[in-house]
Amino acid sequence: MNVLAFDIETVPDVKNGRRLFNLQDLDDRQVAEVMYQQRRQESGTEFLRHDLHRVVAISAVFRSGTRFKIGTFGDEESSEKELIQRFFDGIGKSFPVLVSWNGASFDLPVLHYRSLVHGVNALRYWDTGDFDKDFRWNNYLNRFHHRHTDLMDVLSGYQTRATVSLDSIATLLGLPGKLGMDGSKVWDKYLEGNITAIRNYCEIDALNTYLVYLRFELVRGRLIESEYQREYQRVHDELASSDRSHLQEFLTAWVNPN
């Protein structure tokens, strides 16, 4: 079975905000602040509507057969359209089980809206049986199917008041969690031009998500203890062989890889 544990990072879509609120004379930081203010007035929170986010990174852990890869789609110069197209192209090639934390409520809806903006083709992702009859019974869009597992939803029993953050559950399991970075810092990093930091942070979230997923597979009986230990060790060994500093930091902070 192919597994793709993924995460996205976003920034305010200031181009759209500038148009919506007639802010032609303001710079990007000022436009974003107006967008946050408008949102606070609407809902009491600064968290922008899904359609006002712009994707700047999509990272994933991909596990298939003997393959294990941690990475981010595209490169630092890739456009938003290219990032999203590559993500959906990957789904179309390998039909993985998607694994996320809050992906059903945030990551995927944002990707849906931004796909509309850019005209991104994602035939197999949107298929519910018209192209492949097997997708009628198991597709990415139905909450009760298995091609997408939103761990936050499943573990909370789909009860909003029972949800916890990825950082909380990761650290509960002895995983490193966020490593000092969180989503509130992404916009500032973006304004600084530090796309590398955003991509690295996104990869750490994808890695935490995948490791939580392994524990979930153990408790629901899809992995036996020896298989679970072997998969954990596989991740540990892959990190140990990497020369990428954020992955080495993750490995150092990992309390108990077994």
Overview of this protein structure:
This protein is α/β, with parallel strands linked by helices. The protein has one domain (3-253): Ribonuclease H-like superfamily/Ribonuclease H (Nucleotidyltransferase, domain 5), CATH 3.30.420.10. 49% of the residues lie in helices and 14% in strands. The chain is built from eleven helices and five strands. The chain has helices at 14-20, 28-43, 80-94, 103-118, 123-126, 151-155, 166-172, 186-191, 195-219, 225-240, 245-253; strands at 3-12, 53-64, 67-72, 97-100, 148-150. A five-stranded mixed sheet has the order 3-2-1-4-5, with helices on both faces. Strand 2 (53-64) and strand 3 form a beta hairpin. Helix 1 packs across helix 2, helix 3 (80-94) crosses helix 4 (103-118) and helix 9 (195-219) runs antiparallel to helix 10 (225-240). It is globular, with a radius of gyration of 19 Å. The relative contact order is 0.13. The model has no long low-confidence stretch (mean pLDDT 95).
